[in-house]
Amino acid sequence: PGPYDVALIGDYNIGGDAWASRMLLEEMGLRVVAQWSGDGTVNELVNGLAAKLVLIHCYRSMNYICRA
Could you tell me which residue ranges the Nitrogenase/oxidoreductase component domain spans (predicted)? Predict the structure, then answer.
């Protein structure tokens, strides 16, 4: 684990927008250790527990999480 590990939570990545967000975060020097859901893996889900920051990718996901 590193000091700049983040997890990215979003929708299904149908339009590929999660890939663009991941690229931007990595260009900023952040290491994306997990991307949920869409094309994320079980291994990323486990790694996401160690992330220093969890980012919500889209409005719809934010609403679901805020209601939980």
Answer: 3-67
